[in-house]
Amino acid sequence: MVSGGTSLVATVSVTAAPLLIFVFLFAQISFSSSYLNPRLLHQSSTGNNNYLTTEPHWFNQTLDHFSPYDHRQFQQRYFEYLDHFRSPNGPIFLNICGESSCNGIANDYLSVLAKKFGAAIVSPEHRYYGKSSPFELHTTENLRYLSSKQALFDLAAFRQFYQESLNKKLNRSNVENPWFVFGISYSGALSAWFRLKFPHLTCGSLSSSGVVLAVHNFTEFDQQIGISAGPECKAALQEVTQLVEEGLNSNRTAVKSAFGASELTIDGDFLYFLADAAVTAFQYGNPDKLCSPLVEAKNAGQDLVDAYAAYVKDHFNSVGTYNQENLKNTASGSSDRLWWFQVCSEVAYFQVAPANDSIRSSKVDTSYHLDLCKNVFGDDVYPEVDETNLYYGGTKIAGTKIVFTNGSQDPWRHASKQTSSTEMPSYIVTCDNCGHGTDLRGCPQSPLSIEGDAKRCSSPDAVNKVRQQVSEHIDLWLSECRNDARGWSSA
Q1: Catalytic residue among 315, 414, 436, 473
Q2: Residue 143 to residue 128: CA distance in whole angstroms
Q3: Where does the source fall among the domains of life (predicted)?
Q4: In 129-266, where does DSSP find H-type helix?
Q5: I want to staple 307 with a disulfide (CB 3.0 to 4.6 A). Which of 23, 101, 140, 297 is the partner?
Q6: Do the Cβ atoms of 181 and 194 come closer than 8 Å?
């Protein structure tokens, strides 16, 4: 039994010795034909045709990497794709799954890179998410092992496990394939942090839209939405917010009902839901779906609230995600509670209204977020932002051989590293619909563009230019890795 009275799931070994070897995202970001909560930073996949593989594999992962006494383990799921692998000495691409269920390896631009470099792709599921949870119940007490620090050691353990498994299959020993780590969003941050903390285990890292900066008052998020929207659409969105706030004062039941959000009894939850509905359009490369009908309605003198409600109901069916009562549900299976725990305990990323010229309601402020954390997880859970940035460095991360990429329209890019250096180059993919993870996903990000096709980006050349630069860094760093005296094998 663990503290709190909840036992480990049946697949956990409570007597086995701890792993002696340790193992981040693609932020494997998977995809969906519908939008998901931008709080989660990414989307989930549906439909096996969007995957390179959905066949699961399992290995025993250590529950607590920081305890010399706790030897418990749990079953962690992973996926592998070997069709392009140049056996025996080709590179291995560690594609990090992030803050949702990992149901396979998505068929995005990483598959093109794997074919080019003759690489295997392996992708472990993040602890607690999907089928890789150590516990049957996600009580606050049971979530104490859910953190980026534990996840990074998971990746190190997995990396060592997989390398040794490959060596055993090839009847060899003490051989290291060159490894390269990929991630988008939170997984992009994990990718950068993995290279930072375990530089001996990877030749380099791609941090695509990697949110390496933990931040309490993320006002730049809303400001970027205004820039990405443009003057007309921004003005329309601001008017919608004003009209909705007035409606909440006069008839909140009718206003919430118009958006299909009657279950959101807390006004802050409802206002956050409305703000995120707009965010998805820019974050995932579909600005016209939002702005075109809204600007047309405004110019025609039509009811803007009705126009926005129509957009929300057509493109953002995620009301339950914003209901704090749902977030209190401790049954395993939902990513929402898990990600909010990481937000409330470690990184914050609180998307709050700026003091001036805001699009979202001023009621979506730091107090709203902190009250949510307290209501859902209790008084003792608080985001240790300063500690997180001290541990990893924030945007002053002092790593090497990490390439950062961001989409020009993505509000999350302001939590990423956007300044470039020789050891850590940074690139902005600039176009009207270049959002979250465009370099790997293409445009738009939902639904999934097979092999990250850039043809639907407003500037395919801009995407392809950054992809070429990323490919050159991968090529250089893999080559340097093979030539290193540490004993990497030669391809």
Answers
A1: 436
A2: 8
A3: Eukaryota
A4: 148-169, 186-197, 219-258
A5: 297
A6: yes
From the list 44, 100, 185, 345, the catalytic residue is 185
The backbone region for 462, taken as left when phi is positive above 0, alpha when psi lies in -120 to 50, beta otherwise, is alpha
- State yes or no: is 436 an active-site residue: yes
Q: Is 410 a catalytic residue?
A: yes
In this structure, the strands spanning 51-53 and 105-106 are antiparallel
303: left (phi over 0), alpha (psi -120 to 50) or beta: beta
Instruction: Indicate which residue of 108, 222, 267, 410 is catalytic.
Output: 410
CA dihedral 440, 181, 115, 403 (to 10 degrees): 50
Burial class (CB in 10 A: 0-12, 13-18, 19+), 468: exposed
Q: Which residues lie closer than 8 Å to 397 by C-beta, 6 or more apart? A: 192, 193, 196, 212, 417, 424
Comparing C-alpha atoms, which of 283, 155, 126, 270 is closest to residue 209?
283
Burial 265-294 (b: 16+ CB within 10 A, else e): ebbbbbbbbbbbbbbbbbbbbbbebbbebb
Report residue 189 as tokens: 């941050």
DSSP annotation of 84: T
The overall pTM is greater than 0.85: yes
Q: Report pLDDT digits (tens) over 263-301.
A: 999 999 999 999 999 999 999 999 999 999 999 999 999
Beta strands across the sheet bearing 92-95: 57-62, 73-81, 120-124, 92-95, 179-184, 205-208, 402-407, 426-429
Question: With contact defined as beta carbons under 8 Å apart, do 207 and 189 qualify?
Answer: yes
Contact 151, 129 (CB under 8 A): no
Q: How far is CA 410 from the centre of its chain?
A: 13
* φ, ψ (nearest 5 deg) of residue 9: -65, 165
> Would you mind telling me the total number of residues written for the chain in this entry?
491
| 447 or 401: which leads in pLDDT | 401
Other CB atoms closer than 10 Å to residue 141's CB: what's the count?
A: 15
- The gap from C-alpha 199 to its chain's centroid, in whole angstroms, comes to 22
Which amino acid would we find at residue 424?
M
State yes or no: pLDDT of 452 exceeds 80: yes
* In the block, residue with structure tokens 């790997």: 440
CA distance 125 to 61: 11
